[in-house]
Amino acid sequence: MTIQYPAPMPIRCHPTFLDRIRSASAAIIGVLVTASVPSQHLHAQPLAAERVARPNIVYIMADELGYYELSCMGSPHIATPQIDAMAQEGIRFTQALAGSSVCAPTRCCLMTGKHSGHTSVRSNGGGTPLRAGEVTIASMLHDVGYATGGFGKWGCGGRGSTGVPEAHGFDLFLGYYDQVHAHSYYPPYLVRNSKELALPGNHGGSDGETYSHYVIMDAGMEFIRDNRNQPFFCYLPITPPHGIFDIPDEDPAWQLYRDKPWPEQAKRYAAMVSMVDRQVGEVLGLLRELDLEKNTIVFFCGDNGGNDYFRDAQHPRGFHGANKHPETGVEFRGTKGTLYEGGLRIPMLARWPGKIAAGRVSDHLWYFPDVLPTLAELVGTPATKDTDGISIVPELLGAEFAGRPQSTHDYLYWELGNQTAVRAENWKAIRPHPKKPWELYDLAVDVSEANNLAAAEPDVLSRLKAYADEAHEPVVEGTFHHRDMHERDRRAKLGNQDKPAPTTKTKANVLDPTGLLSNKAWRVARASSEATANGRNAADAIDGDPRTHWHSQFQETLARHPHDLVVDLGQTATIRGFRYLARQDGGWNGAIAKCEFYVGDSPDKFGRPVATVKFEKSKTSQEVSCDEIMGRYVMLRALSEVNGGPWASVAELGVIGEQ
Ligand SMILES: [Ca+2]
Ligand SMILES: [Ca+2]
């Protein structure tokens, strides 16, 4: 069966490209009138066409799947026969990079066609919204008559915000709007166009009877069936294999791994990937059953680099080696959460029988902002003018078919928290922190980013730094009309949606001020980690406000003890002790138990601790004294947490003594 789609409204298209479609598959093209425009112009004249073939688009994105965690990428652990077959039938990319290295920012790059110097969602707090009216892939496709459905984790705006998916082109979005909600596969409800869809028998966390991912996949499949007779966009930003690592024991994929001599969590993770693999096969099978295969382009990818999950002494890069070539042992530096290659390399496949040549492997360098202009060209509509992307249609379908060679980026750009990175050809410049120097790597010979060429290649570095300056604009986030539903969704992760929200008006304790040094001239010299994406920065420990706190990084990369916070007092002082105030909100995560204090004359060198202490599980001011000592730098080293967790947090740090 070949389906003809009446165009609901005049649309624009690249005539040369449509000419090629017409000659390649005349049966699916109706009357086509093209205007004469220079072929290098992607988006040209309005078509007076009555009919035009427009492919269905299925975009499946797995959450956290690492570059080397598919069997077609060489994984010796994880079986993915369906995805491997998809790669054989389509194209596999070796240098398709994520828009960012964590969930929400990368989704925003994908949806809006912008890089992270221009996006509205650059924080990974979970519900940060798109601005009202921002164009997305879904709104673009909706405007040209596509049915638009999303199923999975949205991450571009919590309920009650300007960023909800149904305000950005989705007829239907079912799943999780907030990323904290999405940690549970057994939440009491999912969200469907901002309304709650109850999941029977679920109590949050790992406790329940209805596996949310099955509900999400079923809804995606139903959407494809329901819209078989019109062009559709089915976006599947599914949550596996992201943790909590849950998969029902009855799932056939669990049977493949249950008896492996591996850590339990590593088995669950592998099973979740194989479950996704089976479901990719089911989606492709449904398209075949509905005779839509030849008119549907299917993408499959990860959302950010692998996280080196389940590290141990034998597997320092994670049990399944997400960022380590299984045969050569060559590693990508860094993980999810960094802008080294380990944070950005993702698996990426595309399949369109009869259009995309089978079995190709492409090293074309591209990233998430390119998806929007690519789909725009495929469906014959102009891409939004503020996209930072470049259509990869020539790479996908061939230069002859597209009517022009593939263009390449002058540069690709990423920023995340304090990190900045630029890629131009094989050069990659990265600045891990504004206070650290730029690094420069030649990825052609150094994919592991081990040999810093910043000093050897100053001209290259200054060119890439200029790109970074050009690319960054200050972020303008969307807004919340009200946050109640969003906060409810976050509590629903653990089934606490009906419990009262912790009040922000709770009176906060303060540090006992007796004998404290003034903190006016203090600054943070360094911190071993900080949860910048959640706005819990090291500087919050010395800002004088008991309601703000420093927290060690906990998502997306978990930093573990010891956690160090080094403070520059601005001048040498006489020190006789230290005061500590635990976080003053409802939580205890990171509240310090065992702790050491150090004093020194340099932020990088300390001798033996001058005080060791085990703080109580208390929200009031606590202190420890030491023998009188002179020094300009103070280090707090947290060794354990009151509940035994891996974090550290400090609302306020005080130093007892005299200037
Ligand atoms: Ca992710
Ligand atoms: Ca504070």
Describe the model:
With about 650 residues, this protein is α+β, with helices and mostly antiparallel strands. It folds into three domains: about 1-55, no CATH class; about 55-415, Alkaline Phosphatase, subunit A (3-Layer(aba) Sandwich), CATH 3.40.720.10; about 510-659, Jelly Rolls (Sandwich). The protein is built from 13 helices and 24 strands. The strands form five sheets. Strands 7-6-5-4-8-1-9-10-2-11 form a ten-stranded mixed β-sheet, sandwiched between helices. Strand 15 (about 425-430) and strand 16 (about 440) form a beta hairpin. The chain is globular. The protein starts with 14 loop residues before the first helix and ends with a strand. Residues about 1-50 have low confidence and may be disordered. The protein binds calcium ion (2 copies).
